[in-house]
Amino acid sequence: MYKSFFKRLLDLILAIIALPFWLIILVIIGPIIYIQDKGSIFYNAPRLGMNGKVFKMYKFRSMKMNAPDLRNEDGSTFNSEDDPRLTKIGKFIRKTSIDETPQLLNIIKGDMSIIGPRPDLPEHRKLYEGNEGRKLEIRPGVTGYNQAYFRNTVPWKERIQNDIYYIDHLSWWLDLKVFIKTANSVLKREDIYVIDKGSNKSTDTGL
C-alpha cells in the first residue's frame, strides 16, 4: 500500500510544503547563475523515468554554456572537482547539492519521487543487462539508497544493483533511513568525488 499509494501522496505533500523555500533559493541563485555566465539558469536533462518513459529532469545549470559532454568509461557523466567547465557558482551548488533542488518541480509533476533510483540517461537503457531494467519499475528519486549510502564511490553497474535492492525492500522505514542518511551526507559533503588512484584526481561519477 505504501509503494502504490502513500509514497506518492507523501511526495506531493512534502514537495508542496518545500516549494516556498525553494522559491527563495531560486530568487537568490538564479540571478547569480545568469550574471556569471549569460544563459539559462536551468539545465533540462533528458532522463529515464518509470517504465522507461523519458522526461526532462530540472537542475540549476552549473556548467558554462555549450560545455562539452564528457563521459567516464562506464558511460556515466564525467565531472571533477576542478572541472574547468564549471562556473564559480556551479562549483558551489554542486558541492552543496543545491543544483538538484529544481527536481522539486519533477516531484510535483509526478516524474520523480523524493526517494528512488537516480535516473539514467535515455541511451543507457541499451546497456542494461539481466535484471538491470528493473530499476525502471518505480519513479526515479532526487536521492536514493545508493546515493545515500554509497553516493559516487561505486561503479554504475553496482549502483543499479543497489537500486534493485532498494526496490525489493521498499518501505516507509527504509525511505526514512535513506532521507536521514542523505541529509547527513550532504551536510558533511561526503563522497561527492571519487579519487582516481591512477591520476590522483577527484572525479564525480554521478549521472
Keywords:
two-stranded antiparallel ribbon; 207 residues; alpha+beta; 6 helices
Explained architecture:
- 41% of the residues lie in helices and 14% in strands.
- With 207 residues, it is an alpha+beta fold.
- It has one domain.
- The strands form three sheets. It has a three-stranded antiparallel β-sheet with strand order 3-7-6, with no helix packed on it. The chain has a two-stranded antiparallel sheet with strand order 1-2. A two-stranded parallel sheet has the order 4-5.
- A hairpin with a 4-residue loop joins strand 6 and strand 7 (201-204).
- Helix 1 (2-36) runs antiparallel to helix 3.
- The radius of gyration is 17 Å and the shape is globular.
Topology:
Layout: H1 2-36, E1 42-48, E2 54-60, E3 79-80, H2 88-95, H3 103-109, E4 113-115, E5 141-143, H4 145-149, H5 156-168, H6 172-188, E6 194-196, E7 201-204
Parallel strand pairs: 4-5
Antiparallel strand pairs: 1-2, 3-7, 6-7
Helix pairs in contact: 1-3
